[in-house]
Amino acid sequence: MNRQTKEACLGLLLVVPMIVIIGGVGVFIGYDKGISFGPLLMFGGTVIAGGLIWLVPFISSRIGKPEEKVSFDERDLLIHKRAVMAAYVVLWLYFVAACVIPWCVVGPQGSISVNIMPLALLGGLIVFTLAQGLATVVQYGRGGDDAKD
Amino acid sequence: MPKTEIQNRIRRLRFDHGEMTQQQLADKARVTRQTIIAIEAGKYAPSLPLAFRIAAAFGVPLEDVFQYTPNGDPPSD
Fold first, then answer.
1. Which of B1, B23, B47 is closest, CB to CB, to A74?
2. CB pairs under 8 A, 24+ apart, for B8-11?
3. Which of A71, A143, A149 lies closest to B32 in CB terms?
4. pTM for this one?
5. Residue A105 domain boundaries
6. Residue ranges of A 29-58 with Cβ closer than 8 A to chain B
7. CB–CB of A147 and B40 under 8 A?
8. What CATH number is given to the structural domain containing B38?
9. Is residue A148 assigned to a domain?
10. Over its length of 77 residues, how does chain B's per-residue pLDDT go in tens digits?
11. Has residue B50 been placed in a domain?
12. Which of A42, A61, B20, B46 has the highest count of CB atoms within 10 angstroms of its CB?
């Protein structure tokens, strides 16, 4: 298991639950106390920071110190790019579903709470992280098996 | 993952060069061992700079390491 696979597994097992817990607490506080800036900023910060996690390998490959032993190369970067692309496709499908499903459920004349919107944003972040992690693990699983020398 | 149309003789060349290990080749080409494994197995087609680095690691021309076969058939040695 190389660094990228470890990061993907970490994303699936640690980052997603962390986002759910922190975001959920933020939304709950905001909902319970009435909308105020504190929980809103906390929630927004979580979503923005979580949404930018996928940039880390690109940035570290550009500005990181060259290590003696290579742990991230062009193939890893290609797999990461494909995973991000797959995650964006899934995110788009999620966005379409989030737009259409409420319309189907409540009907053209219906109305929904605006509290759904930040929750939908949080859901988008979770879906993106999950899709990216799964795409990474699947790609390494298919082509990253160790072979004998 | 489908095999690429780029065939290679990396495994043969490694053994011809003092049974060089995949890790040693990876260190010389500045990539991970997993990438060498994927290239050897034909699951990943390397970039042009990496292909040249691998050829340079063996001290042979690029075409001695990689061969293009349009229908994916293995090249005749």
1. B47
2. B8/B39, B8/B40, B8/B42, B8/B65, B8/B66, B8/B67, B9/B64, B9/B65, B9/B67, B9/B77, B10/B36, B10/B39, B10/B40, B10/B54, B10/B65, B11/B40
3. A71
4. 0.69
5. 3-143
6. none
7. yes
8. 1.10.260.40
9. no
10. 456 688 999 999 999 999 999 999 999 999 999 999 999 998 899 999 999 999 999 999 999 999 988 765 655 55
11. yes
12. B46
